């Protein structure tokens, strides 16, 4: 049975910060941000957006009534969840009006969560071929103002429908995964900002890729020449390039050029959104599919997922006939063009806005947020969501 990505959607908030201007305000050479880490813009979530609303908005554009009835499993990958007990998947299930006879859970392992969700979804579809699974990756990356990680913040979500006989990408069965306990990145439950050992994290990212890549070649007999492109988890776009460069010598000159060019295309969206943790790999995949005009049916695409702490996986997919017909290129082009730039001082003010923690009633103005699904406030320690289309 062929199982894979049948639909894929994306959402980012309507606000962003220009990285050149942030660099100037931080007394940093702009090239350190735009070239050194490879980021142009950073998506900024207003207080009316959180991981739940970002995910719901990403899914809203791709689901039809048939999907709403067939989806019987919602898997929400995130590392910036809003509740230590109730899964974000339950909120999204309700906001989207999905079939009530369904499972809804939240999966956590740093930036690996959505990949774990996809692998779980494959097993569910294998047992229930008529079912569909909604896999969500949604995060708001926060390191704090004037911190070393500030330039690698971001906000956004990717939603994917996993099904049998998918229209976009069939996921191949053989993959390689690796786990070891390291402290390269973490966020204690008492903190709304992450902690990171940047040097160690970069080293482990490369090390994990090397381990799973070598094991994958040994396991499958495939090599670099068998790939049209390799997409990476992108905490910042230069990170994946560092990993790709470690294996380019294994290919012919033609292959090296192809993989490098396709890598650049696959980072287009990420450069203008920033780090969105669990969704970053899949935003890169989406960028490749929507921005590359001549990817051929049957092309094999490699996918490297890395979640600090740490878990890594290398797996692959095969492009399906007419996959372009099932993308939402115009929607995403419009999303980017309609975003509004904020000044650095505005960004700092928005970044510091927080919800009450004392259970008090708190109403938010959703009229200034163009998203269909928003956080409307809080009451009795409960978040109150609104779907403007209902």
Automatic annotation (TrEMBL):
<feature type="domain" description="Hydroxymethylglutaryl-coenzyme A synthase C-terminal">
    <location>
        <begin position="178"/>
        <end position="246"/>
    </location>
</feature>
<comment type="similarity">
    <text>Belongs to the thiolase-like superfamily. HMG-CoA synthase family.</text>
</comment>
<dbReference type="GO" id="GO:0004421">
    <property type="term" value="F:hydroxymethylglutaryl-CoA synthase activity"/>
</dbReference>
<protein>
    <submittedName>
        <fullName>Hydroxymethylglutaryl-CoA synthase</fullName>
        <ecNumber>2.3.3.10</ecNumber>
    </submittedName>
</protein>
<dbReference type="InterPro" id="IPR013746">
    <property type="entry name" value="HMG_CoA_synt_C_dom"/>
</dbReference>
<dbReference type="Pfam" id="PF08540">
    <property type="entry name" value="HMG_CoA_synt_C"/>
</dbReference>
<keyword id="KW-0808">Transferase</keyword>
<dbReference type="Pfam" id="PF01154">
    <property type="entry name" value="HMG_CoA_synt_N"/>
</dbReference>
<dbReference type="InterPro" id="IPR011554">
    <property type="entry name" value="HMG_CoA_synthase_prok"/>
</dbReference>
<dbReference type="InterPro" id="IPR016039">
    <property type="entry name" value="Thiolase-like"/>
</dbReference>
<dbReference type="InterPro" id="IPR013528">
    <property type="entry name" value="HMG_CoA_synth_N"/>
</dbReference>
<feature type="domain" description="Hydroxymethylglutaryl-coenzyme A synthase C-terminal">
    <location>
        <begin position="264"/>
        <end position="352"/>
    </location>
</feature>
<keyword id="KW-0012">Acyltransferase</keyword>
<feature type="domain" description="Hydroxymethylglutaryl-coenzyme A synthase N-terminal">
    <location>
        <begin position="2"/>
        <end position="165"/>
    </location>
</feature>
């Amino acid at each position: 049975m062929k199982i894979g990505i049948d639909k894929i959607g994306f959402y980012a908030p309507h606000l962003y910060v220009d990285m050149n201007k942030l660099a100037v305000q931080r007394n940093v050479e702009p090239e350190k941000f735009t070239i050194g880490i490879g980021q142009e813009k950073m998506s900024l979530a207003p207080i009316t957006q959180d991981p739940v609303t970002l995910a719901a908005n990403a899914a809203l554009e791709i689901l039809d009534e048939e999907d709403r009835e067939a989806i019987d499993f919602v898997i929400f990958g995130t590392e910036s969840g809003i509740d230590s007990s109730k899964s974000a998947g339950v909120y999204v299930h309700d906001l989207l009006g999905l079939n009530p006879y369904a499972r809804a859970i939240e999966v956590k392992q740093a930036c690996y969560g959505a990949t774990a969700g996809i692998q779980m979804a494959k097993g569910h579809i294998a047992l229930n071929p008529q079912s569909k699974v909604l896999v969500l990756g949604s995060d708001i990356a926060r390191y704090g103002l004037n911190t070393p990680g500030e330039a690698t913040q971001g906000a956004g979500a990717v939603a994917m429908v996993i099904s049998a006989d998918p229209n976009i990408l069939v996921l191949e069965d053989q993959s390689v995964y690796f786990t070891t306990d390291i402290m390269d990145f973490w966020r204690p439950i008492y903190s709304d900002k992450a902690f990171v050992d940047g040097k160690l994290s970069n080293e482990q990212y490369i090390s994990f890729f090397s381990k799973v890549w070598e094991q994958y070649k040994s396991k499958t007999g495939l090599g670099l020449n068998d790939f049209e492109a390799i997409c990476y988890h992108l905490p910042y776009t230069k990170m994946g390039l560092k990993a790709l460069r470690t294996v380019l010598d294994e290919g012919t000159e033609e292959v090296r050029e192809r993989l490098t060019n396709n890598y650049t295309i696959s980072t287009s969206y990420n450069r203008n959104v920033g780090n969105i943790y669990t969704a970053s790999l899949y935003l890169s995949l989406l960028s490749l599919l929507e921005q590359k005009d001549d990817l051929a049916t049957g092309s094999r695409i490699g996918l490297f997922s890395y979640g600090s702490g740490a878990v890594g996986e290398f797996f692959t997919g095969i492009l399906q006939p007419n996959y372009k017909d099932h993308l939402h290129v115009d929607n995403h082009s419009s999303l980017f063009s309609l975003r509004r730039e904020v000044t650095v001082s505005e960004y700092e003010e928005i970044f510091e806005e927080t919800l009450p923690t004392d259970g008090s009633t708190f109403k938010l103005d959703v009229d200034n947020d163009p998203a269909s699904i928003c956080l409307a406030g809080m009451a009795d320690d409960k978040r109150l969501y609104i779907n403007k289309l209902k």
